[in-house]
Automatic annotation (TrEMBL):
GO terms for biological process: transmembrane transport. GO terms for cellular component: plasma membrane. It is a multi-pass membrane protein. This is Carbohydrate ABC transporter permease. The keyword NAD does not apply. Belongs to the binding-protein-dependent transport system permease family. The lineage of its organism: Bacteria, Bacillati, Actinomycetota, Actinomycetes, Propionibacteriales. It comes from the Bacteria. It is found in: Cell membrane.
Length: 294
């Protein structure tokens, strides 16, 4: 092989590498955009179906609306025994109570595991981690019996009170990891200034836990708002229904189902979740990234 041929071959390979380096980002973005469309198609189809007549929803799998019907929202809002406003308020009560309970109880439990020394600390921390793997279906029967004897069935108490007892081990673990990343020198400096354990927690640790607290708030909001199983078990009066349980009322296995109204109210129920994720996304990413969870 001559020198000129070798140079030509090297130049050709370099040109190919440069061309692929320029084309690669475009290919990646096209693939990601196509994947996003595939994943979002069910949501888009649901929104479109909420604007279609009921007899056309399952006839056309496309996302083009030929006959726009916004009446589905008006009919769906008043289709059940209570206006849909009632179910939104019920869900808001349960969500706010759950958020407050998790923020208070899980932060205190996490501080104890991360900073305090007590007998059996490692054992109880292991038990707490094991409870993450315990499915709710295992404990739902004894919990129902307990709450039934307490007279709490058909109230919001079974859905809120357990949150005040740090039962969500995932959030405890998340906050423990975050607190462990806070230098202990801050605790010692506060102790020199005369702060006790409570003051250190309230004045030093808690203000620095904002990313972890924000992550807990967002996850609790989304999980509680979308929870169907627990709310279906404990809430039997239609006046106490939350949004997920109320949506079941649009589907009737013995007669015709109001699909258009159900899709319309499903879109309404997704709006708070979408807004929570939209405005809390940066806190969510920061909170997870700084807790050691990879």
């Amino acid at each position: 092989m001559t020198t000129e041929t070798l140079r030509t071959t090297v130049a050709t390979r370099r040109a190919g590498v440069i061309t692929w380096a320029r084309v690669r980002p475009l290919v990646i973005h096209v693939v990601l955009a196509a994947s996003a469309v595939v994943m979002l198609y069910p949501v888009i189809w649901m929104v479109v179906s909420s604007l279609r007549p009921g007899n056309e929803i399952f006839r056309d799998p496309g996302i083009l609306v030929k006959d726009l019907r916004i009446d589905n929202y008006r009919v769906g809002w008043n289709a059940l025994t209570e206006p849909f406003t009632r179910y939104l308020l019920n869900s808001a009560v349960v969500v706010l109570g759950s958020i407050l309970g998790n923020l208070v109880s899980c932060s205190m439990a996490a501080y104890a595991f991360a900073r305090l020394e007590f007998v059996g600390k490692k054992f109880w921390f292991a038990i707490m981690l094991l409870s993450i793997m315990l499915p709710i279906h295992v404990v739902i029967v004894p919990q129902y019996i307990l709450f039934s004897h307490a007279g709490w069935i058909n109230t919001f108490l079974p859905l809120i009170v357990p949150k005040l007892l740090a039962t969500d081990a995932f959030f405890v673990f998340l906050m423990v990891q975050f607190i462990r990343g806070i230098p202990r020198e801050l605790d010692e400096a506060a102790r020199i200034d005369g702060c006790g354990r409570g003051s250190i927690f309230l004045r030093v640790i808690l203000p620095l836990m904002v990313p972890a607290l924000a992550t807990t708030t967002i996850f609790t909001f989304i999980w509680t708002w979308n929870d169907f199983f627990s709310q279906l078990i404990y809430l039997t009066d239609p006046h106490m229904y939350t949004v997920p349980v109320a949506l079941r009322g649009f589907v009737d296995s013995t007669s015709s189902s109001s699909w258009g109204s159900m899709f319309a109210m499903s879109v309404v129920s997704l709006v708070p979740v979408f807004l929570a994720f939209l405005f809390g996304q940066r806190f969510l990413i920061k909170g997870i990234a700084t807790t050691g969870i990879k």
